Amino acid sequence: MTDIEIAQKVIAEHIREVANKLNIKEEHLEYYGREKAKLPLDLIEEEKVSKGNLVLVTAITPTPAGEGKTTTCIGLSDGLNHIGKKSVVVLREPSLGPVFGMKGGAAGGGWSQVIPMVDINLHFTGDFHAISMANNLLAALIDNNIQSKSRSLDIDPRTVIWKRCMDMNDRALRNIVAALGGKAGGVPRETGFNITAASEIMAILCLCKNLEDLQEMCGNIYIGDTFEGKAVYAKDLNSAGAMAVLLKDAIKPNLVQTLEGNPAIIHGGPFANIAQGTNSIIATKMGLSLSEYAVTEAGFAADLGAEKFLNIKCRRAGLSPKAVVVVATIRALKYHGGKPLNSLTEEDVDALEKGMPNLEKHIESIQSFGLPVVVSVNAFSSDTAAEKELIYAHCEKLGVPVALSYGWADGGKGCTELAEKVVAAVKTCDKEFIPTYDLEDAPLTKIEKICRKIYGASNVELTAVAKRQLKRFEDLGYGNLPICMAKTQKSLSDNAKLIGRPENFDIHIREFEIATGAGFIIPIAGNMLRMPGLPLTPSAENIEMDSEGTIVGLF
User: Per-residue pLDDT tens for 427-449?
Assistant: First the structure.
């Protein structure tokens, strides 16, 4: 069966029964039908958060199909429940861009899924819509003020960096001219769209601590300058209150369930190649408040999601994982060893061995944070005994525990070996993670530390435009912010074609953006874009619905 057929076959428990497993009273549930509910922020208990066991799931550099982090997260959480531990999986919400583009949804796969799968992959509880509207409200207020004469802030339209957003891959909207149509249409200017997952509002939702914090962060958004060169912020437009009001429900985490009826919390959805790539601080803290283990993921490989999870999210939230799972697949390691994509199901021990340095680098990166590592091999039917034996032997040589994960085929039962090894790793962790850089470091120094320690780069090069932008941000007093790299997910470098473990390469910073509300500087490396495009054959072409409303083709 396909993922969607499996998800549609399982009869979900009523969400109040799932909540009961976390000792959440029904009066705390805000129902969105029988299978979804929002949770109030007052369920977070900081004392329990500090005592909980946070497990981060990351991965090696992925093939175009991905390596199965979400599937592994769900399978591991179900596996922990199988071995008698109280666990909840805490995930990001899927974006419609990949759902209708190339990558597909983000609800797991096979027998390690969260349900209702279709709802989660589509509009869910409307959080993305609320984020888009809050973002676009600010854009409308900016243009309105530029048009105004009596209440003008004297904003120079050429300096406005705030863009509109939508939750769809639409390359035609990357760069546009707005306000055409004469005086009634406003003051024409160049602008564009980001995908909602890359919006600063998404980052703010995921990094705020409560409603008050949310409103303050919205007000701190830098939008551009006056004609005299003075910085203008969202609070200068009196926009923060209205933006926060639009997000009053979106700030509440969403409770759903795995196929096995275990609790899952899903909230926020920033991409990891162009944003910070992790679910919300609020959702993670709620998971830790309600269970013994909280299993969460950070997007793409350890060079992107895990680095940002630790250096940005955990630093702001005061969190530290007790163990990190690095997901690998034998097919991806063969790909990094030079085997063509169309023949990865064929046995090739030599290619597998040649691809191991990619895994080694990601293990080293996690160990640089001082955290215990467990390797999870997401198993496929094409994996051979010789290939499995090689990866076990290689991890043993590295001194890193490894487990085969059969979550796709067998759900939690297929992840009990992984669960046991994660529990053992958690017991060895007796200290908090070591950040890659100090916040007092100069921005360029922070970037260099990430690029050298985590990517393995030799140098960092900035264009003239990037140097000018970075100086402006430092002059505004933002040199102490953390760094949120925008870089291809397909390579440790900024060149998607350099697979494996590249060496002697430079990272090229094309330009900078800044998120003063969310609180980080964004160096854009290589040809990264914050509004993706659709592939030649979008997934949307294969999705349809029958006369009874049953959806097919969604994956």
Answer: 999 999 999 999 999 999 999 99
Q: What is the dihedral of CA 535, 540, 542, 544, to 10 degrees?
A: 180
Mean of pLDDT over the chain:
96
416 belongs to the catalytic site: no
Which of 445-473 are b and which e, b meaning 16 or more Cβ less than 10 Å from the residue's Cβ?
ebbbbbbebbbbbeebebeeebeebbebb
Q: Which of 38, 92, 252, 487 is catalytic?
A: 92
Within 13 A of 235's CA, how many CA atoms are on the CB side?
A: 11
pLDDT at 406 (0 to 100): 96
DSSP alpha helices (H): ranges in 10-155? Answer: 15-21, 46-51, 69-82, 96-100, 117-121, 127-147
Domains 3-126+250-428 and 443-525 share a fold: no
Q: Give me the pLDDT at residue 555, please.
A: 83
Is-catalytic flag, 468? no
Q: Among the options 36, 38, 103, 530, which is catalytic?
A: 103
Q: Which CATH class is domain 127-240?
A: alpha beta
Q: How far apart are the first and last CA of the chain?
A: 12
Is residue 162 part of the annotated active site? The answer reads no
Q: Which of 63, 71, 72, 488 is catalytic?
A: 71
Angstrom distance (rounded) from CA 126 to CA 115:
16
Please confirm whether the linkage preceding 357 is cis (ω < 30° from 0).
Answer: no
Q: In this structure, which topology does domain 3-126+250-428 adopt according to CATH?
A: Rossmann fold (3.40.50)
**Could you confirm whether 103 is annotated as catalytic?**
yes
300 is catalytic: yes
Residues 6+ apart with CB under 8 A from 70: 91, 106, 107, 108, 109, 297
Query: Among this protein's residues, is 107 annotated catalytic?
Result: no
Check residue 181 and give its pLDDT: 92
**Domain segments of the chain: what residues?**
3-126+250-428, 127-240, 443-525
Q: Which CATH number fits domain 443-525: 3.10.410.10, 3.30.200.20, 1.10.8.60, 1.10.3720.10?
A: 3.10.410.10
CB 236 within 8 A of CB 165: no
**C-alpha span between 229 and 222 (Å, rounded):** 13
Catalytic-labelled residue, pool 197, 272, 298, 306: 272
Query: What pTM value is reported for the model?
Result: 0.96
Task: For the chain, list residues with pLDDT below 70.
Answer: 65
Evaluate whether 327 touches 60 at the Cβ level (below 8 Å). yes
Per the residue annotation, which of 193, 300, 309, 473 is the catalytic one?
Answer: 300
In the chain, the amino acid numbered 326 is: V
